[in-house]
Design goal:
The chain has 370 residues and is of the alpha+beta class. It has three domains: 2-72, Jelly Rolls; 77-240, P-loop containing nucleotide triphosphate hydrolases (Rossmann fold), CATH 3.40.50; 268-366, Pre-mRNA cleavage complex subunit Clp1, C-terminal domain (Elongation Factor Tu (Ef-tu), domain 3). Helix content is 19%, strand content 33%. A seven-stranded mixed β-sheet has the order 13-12-11-14-10-15-16, sandwiched between helices. It has a seven-stranded mixed β-sheet with strand order 17-22-21-20-23-18-19, with no helix packed on it. A hairpin with a 2-residue loop joins strand 4 and strand 5 (35-36). Helix 1 crosses helix 2 (104-117). The longest helix is centred in the middle third of the chain and has 18 residues, at 172-189. It comes from Vairimorpha ceranae. Residues 102-232 form the Clp1 P-loop domain.
């Protein structure tokens, strides 16, 4: 089947995990999330909702089955290109952007790919514990220097990650401390490239703290016009309309991608931990807000206390780079593993053996789809 897209139109397609669908650009030019599609080459699309956009108009050839396909005139890609064009202007001094709203990941991926196509790098930082573009429950950053393929995700090499251990900000003090450690680590890199900070759905007070901590130049709100007008920050704001799809993200899906790859191209390893490791948790497991305490009451436990805990089945463990217990709270993790059997300390890991470290950080995130 062949179809024609006019200038600034997009072709939207929904494909489930049992269907096979592929597309070819026969003439003109088209792209997916900023990745230019090569003419007369088949691109396979599976288990996703995606958008093929054209600036010039194009003719597509499609083959296979899908749940839904249609052409739309509503698109935000020209808005993203307009922002990109302004950023590469030599007179533009804006480097650090915080991104909020709906469709944040697609926006970031698109603009990152535009920069990569010009052989420029982008620093991508994720402080939303739920998204899991890098790893759920973590505060992480990655220097992207290769194209984010249309059917893949960020290549997780040279990741700098601090494991918080939950998808909810229950311990604000711990979250803020890890955030400051992440900022310090980023500063040490002395990166002068575009810096995108993907933020969670939070209050104006939270965003104001991020602006101050990371010296943010501008806030970009994607797809949520009400939120755009409600946010109160001391910097300029920019609104990018929503178009296409918002891909659902889940903790299990993100962890599966970490161990197996998006298309099961990786093979994780399972083995028993032989030597002595300390399994610890940072802070209280469930931290009651100050307002929930009795009048005049104070917390008895140190909310940043490091304590030994019992290994739990299916728990995600962060492999700490710390050499001593005092260093745990300020050290990044080298990677993640999952407890398969707590009785014999059997874990799922991306490598055949563990690094020479001494501490696992155990949070409340669990994963059992192995």
């Amino acid at each position: 089947m062949e179809l024609t897209l006019l200038k600034n139109q997009e072709y939207r397609v929904e494909v489930n995990d049992t269907q096979k669908f592929k597309v070819m650009v026969m003439s003109g030019s088209a792209e997916i999330k900023g990745q230019e599609l090569i003419n007369e080459k088949w691109y396979t699309i599976k288990n996703t909702k995606t958008v093929i956009f054209t600036y010039t108009g194009c003719k597509l050839k499609i083959d296979g089955t899908c749940d839904l396909q249609f052409i739309s005139n509503n698109t935000n890609v020209p808005d993203i290109l307009k922002l990109f064009t302004s950023l590469i202007n030599k007179e533009c001094n804006d480097k650090t952007f915080m991104v909020v709203g709906k469709g944040r990941t697609t926006f970031c991926t698109t603009i990152i790919n535009y920069f990569i196509r010009l052989h420029k790098k982008v620093l991508f930082t994720e402080i939303d514990l739920k998204k899991g573009n890098i790893f759920p429950g973590s505060l992480s950053t990655i220097h992207v220097d290769t194209l984010v393929e249309y059917n893949e995700h960020f290549k997780l090499s040279n990741v700098l990650s601090f494991y918080y251990g939950s998808t909810e900000i229950k311990n604000k003090d711990l979250y803020t401390l890890l955030l400051s450690r992440l900022k310090e680590a980023i500063d040490k890199k002395k990166v002068d490239d575009l810096h995108l900070i993907l933020c969670p759905e939070e209050t104006s007070k939270y965003y104001q703290e991020i602006v101050k901590m990371f010296n943010v130049d501008k806030l970009i709100c994607v797809g949520d016009e009400r939120k755009f007008h409600m946010i109160d920050v001391p910097i300029n704001k920019m609104f990018i309309p929503l178009s296409g799809y918002i891909n659902d993200s889940s903790v299990d899906k993100s962890i599966t991608r970490y161990f197996n790859g998006l298309n099961n191209e990786y093979t994780p390893y399972s083995f028993c931990v032989k030597r002595k490791w300390n399994v610890v948790r940072v802070g209280e497991e469930c931290l009651a807000p100050e307002s929930a305490l009795p009048l005049g009451g104070t917390r008895k436990l140190d909310i940043l206390e490091i304590k030994d805990v019992k290994l739990e089945n299916n728990c995600v463990l962060g492999i700490s780079d710390a050499k001593t217990s005092e260093e745990i709270i300020k050290s990044p993790v080298l990677g993640y593993c999952v407890v398969i059997n707590q009785d014999i300390f059997k874990i799922l890991c991306t490598q055949t053996k563990l690094p020479k470290c001494s501490y696992f950080i155990q949070g409340e995130i669990k994963y059992s789809d192995f």
